[in-house]
Amino acid sequence: xxxxxxxxxxxxxxxxxxxxxxxxxxxxxxxxxxxxxxxxxxxxxxxxxxxxxxxxxxxxxxxxxxxxxxxxxxxxxxxxxxxxxxxxxxxxxxxxxxxxxxxxxxxxxxxxxxxxxxxxxxxxxxxxxxxxxxxxxxxxxxxxxxxxxxxxxxxxxxxxxxxx
Length: 164
Description:
GO terms for molecular function: enzyme activator activity; lipid transporter activity. It comes from Syrrhaptes paradoxus (Pallas's sandgrouse). This is SAP3 protein. Keywords: Signal. The structure is a single chain. Strand 5 and strand 6 form a beta hairpin. It contains 2 helices and 10 strands, in the order E-E-E-E-E-E-E-H-H-E-E-E. It is globular, with a radius of gyration of 16 Å. The mean pLDDT is 93. The protein has one domain: Ganglioside GM2 activator (Ganglioside M2 Activator Protein, Chain: A). Strands 1, 3, 5, 6, 7, 9 and 10 form a 7-stranded mixed sheet that branches. The protein has a 3-stranded antiparallel sheet with strand order 2-4-8, with no helix packed on it.
């Protein structure tokens, strides 16, 4: 195992949205299974549609890091507007799923400026038909959030996945 779970902001300190804290257990993350996540972050400006998300996903192959392609919306994909995706997943007007509802964390755009905090909460990772190249291993993910070409946030994650 190469070091386990880690995260960092990768903006140049000028991004309006930053992650302040993130913990994920267990390490490695086991699929299917349950993960306990706690997080805190803040944004100095409202995050509104269109919110573009660019994912770069790399997997360790020995000493090499290989960028994974975007296949069936998994991998190194660009999502041109997560606001629309959220609206499709959670119809507007319906309550946000737990534990977001309890902690007053919005699940639709716009996300107002302010601080958001999720105390340690459990999420179930269901049995997923993942391609073999997306299961066991060490991963690096870079998430860039932007709107109208302005970078809003950048986060790098490193984690290990282990399938049952």
